[in-house]
Design goal:
This protein is mainly alpha-helical. Helix content is 69%, strand content 1%. The chain is globular and about 60 Å long.
Length: 447
């Protein structure tokens, strides 16, 4: 064979090799895993949200549903893990098990949309986009749940990638702000890390930092095999810890402590160690004058005044609430006694009552407590505590200072609220389908 023939044969082999590689990536979930990770990562970057939206509908959704309907595609050693390779008949049994959390999410979105539709200041034309966004969120929840139960990669692997990306994103914000803000002003009351990040609300930024900080700690505690994951995760945890302190959110710090607490097997030794670490961190915080003064000056954060106002406000329309358009209904915001502009109720359950009435409130309670319950049941069955840790973090922070703005998809709240909810739907499907002993779940390998 002449050199020319060999070159010609090589050229012919290239598309065959590419097709073979693509088929292998499809078969072992590599393409789906990275497509999903890139989509979630891009949700918090406004300039990439159009791209991530296209990626979600063109790649992630088709691959997830094709994977979920795949018949006997994989065979792995039977060890315990959250994600599982599931054949067609297994998916059918999982579907029959149903999801209470998913139904609650659909009811919440329906009531918020209906309440908006019935507001004379909003009307059908403005409420229609809410219905579209609600449907997109429901599909995202379904896709996330199916990703959890049908992809061979564990949720820890996905959370590890997302935590590393979150840490890198925060580091970029810090370096960017250092160019314009002197370092000694970073801890001043006038500075808030992420406040100027386009498209990011203060609370969404805080919760994303706290969720992935807790996820990093949990993944490291449960053991990371690869050094390529371990080192970036440690760096990400340190960066996110600094970010949480710079945001000066006391509720977020409490939420992180609660999330980490769910990962600890409590004993006298662990209690003493935890108390010692907490005392050390508190001492370090109090030694910084600006931080100490900031904490003392903020007092109760106006929470009693805010909650009392919205309880009285929601009592005027208990069944339907006031709806939502562009995130904030004009009649919901008010000024506190000190003149501060308050845009929402700073509590997920109370906000649900204000936005969508009694049924929306009940749906939010089911989402929060149902997510905690099934994530806890999953932790008992498998020992994997990452879903429980991030849901606990979301729950505690949501009780103190959060609201859901159904305004666009994807956005920051796709990561800060709906991602943990979708993961918990996956854990619910896993736990409920375990009642059928004929289900044989097969294990992926973690990071």
């Amino acid at each position: 064979m002449t050199p020319r023939d060999e070159r010609h044969l090589t050229v012919l082999h290239r598309p065959v090799f590419a097709a073979t590689s693509l088929n292998r990536w499809l078969q072992d979930d590599t393409l789906l895993f990275w497509a999903y990770a890139v989509f979630v990562s891009g949700c918090v970057i406004p300039s990439l949200q159009d791209f991530t939206n296209s990626l979600f509908w063109a790649v992630v959704v088709p691959l997830v549903f094709l994977k979920s309907l795949q018949l006997n595609a994989f065979r792995f050693p039977p060890t315990v893990s959250l994600s599982a390779s599931v054949s067609l008949w297994q998916i059918e049994k999982v579907s029959k098990a149903g999801s209470i959390i998913l139904c609650a999410a659909a009811l919440y979105l329906l009531m918020v949309t209906l309440s908006s539709l019935l507001q004379p200041t909003i009307g059908v034309d403005n409420a229609t986009p809410l219905l579209v966004v609600s449907l997109e969120i429901i599909i995202f929840l379904i896709v996330t749940a199916l990703f959890v139960v049908s992809v061979k990669y564990s949720v820890n692997s996905c959370l590890a990638v997302l935590a590393i990306v979150a840490g890198a994103n925060v580091l970029i914000l810090i370096l960017r702000d250092l160019e314009t803000i002197p370092f000694d002003q970073f801890l001043s009351p006038d500075y808030f890390l992420g406040y100027s990040a386009a498209g990011a609300g203060q609370t969404s930024f805080r919760i994303i930092c706290s969720i992935f900080l807790v996820a990093s700690i949990v993944i490291l505690r449960e053991g990371v095999r690869s050094l390529w994951y371990r080192v970036p995760l440690i760096a990400s945890a340190l960066i996110l810890s600094c970010a949480v302190l710079l945001t000066q959110g006391r509720g977020i710090i409490i939420a992180i402590i609660a999330g980490i607490a769910t990962t600890i097997k409590w004993s006298l030794r662990s209690i003493l160690l935890t108390a010692g670490v907490a005392a050390l961190i508190l001492a370090l915080i109090l030694t910084i004058p600006t931080t100490r003064d900031r904490i003392l000056d903020r007092g109760d954060g106006r929470r009693p005044e805010i909650w009392n106002h919205y309880i009285d406000y929601s009592a005027k329309r208990p069944w339907l609430g006031y709806g939502m358009i562009d995130g904030i209904h004009p009649g919901i915001a008010f000024q506190s006694k000190d003149g501060t502009y308050i845009a929402h109720a700073h509590n997920l359950i109370l906000s649900a009552q204000v936005r969508g009435g009694v049924l929306a409130t009940g749906a939010m309670i089911v989402m929060l407590f149902g997510g905690l319950y099934y994530a806890g049941r999953y932790a008992q069955l498998t020992g994997g505590r990452a879903p429980l840790a991030i849901m606990t973090t979301l729950f505690v922070s949501g009780i103190m200072e959060y609201d859901t703005f159904v305004r666009s998809f994807p956005n920051w709240q796709t990561v800060s609220f709906w991602l943990p909810t979708g993961i918990c739907i996956g854990t619910e499907l896993y736990v409920r389908s375990r009642r059928d002993r004929s289900l044989q779940y097969l294990a992926p390998s973690g990071p």
